[in-house]
Every structure is written in C-alpha cells, then in structure tokens.
Design goal:
about 110 residues, mainly alpha, about 0% strand
C-alpha cells in the first residue's frame, strides 16, 4: 500500500507527464504547419508519445500498489510559437521541470 504522501506525489508526477505530453503535441502540431520542419514535427510527436507512456506507467504503478491514480484535467498548452528557438526553450523548460519533480519524488520515497 502506498502512503498518502507518495500517492499524492505520484499523482502530481502523472499530471506533469500529461502536461508535457500535451505541450509537445501542441509543439508538433505547430511545427507540422511550418515549412521545412518535418524533422521537428516528428521529434515532438515522438516526445509527446513518450511522455504519455510515462504517465500510463505511473497510473498503473499507483493502482497496482493499492493507490488511486487520478487522471488530471489539463489546461490548454501554448499552441503558437514565435520561433523555433522559443519552441525548444519551452521544451527544455518542461524537461527540466519534469526531471526536478522526479528527483524530488525519489528523495521523498527514500525518506519514508
């Protein structure tokens, strides 16, 4: 059985993964309508899928251990970007935020 703090932290991570998946999907959609960015488009579709897979693994992990994984409501991500550099700056920001959250989750689980 998961402790309440661990379950809450894991559900928070589910939300972060879902938000990243949606953000990367929006980036892919934007890139797809820009001339000459097919490689960027493919990259962001792949990243979106990867984050969704992470989210699904966390949901199953929580539920299989007697917790209750919550599928989060998501805010609309940014859908238009002023430049390709801005898109990748946003991508880096998401990746750093998710990595920091995972590191905090690991520290929390080790302290219990």
């Amino acid at each position: 059985m998961l402790s309440k703090p661990i379950q809450e932290a894991l559900n928070g991570q589910v939300q972060m993964e879902a938000e990243s998946s949606q953000a990367y999907l929006a980036m892919a959609s934007w890139a797809e309508i820009q001339p000459g960015l097919q490689g960027v488009t493919d990259f962001f579709y792949k990243q979106s899928d990867e984050e969704r897979i992470h989210m699904l693994k966390l949901i199953r992990f929580v539920n299989e251990r007697g917790g209750f994984a919550i599928v989060p409501a998501l805010a609309q991500p940014i859908i238009t970007f002023k430049s390709l550099k801005f898109v990748f700056d946003e991508f880096l920001s998401h990746e750093l935020k998710v990595s920091n959250s995972i590191n905090e989750l690991v520290h929390l689980s080790l302290s219990e």
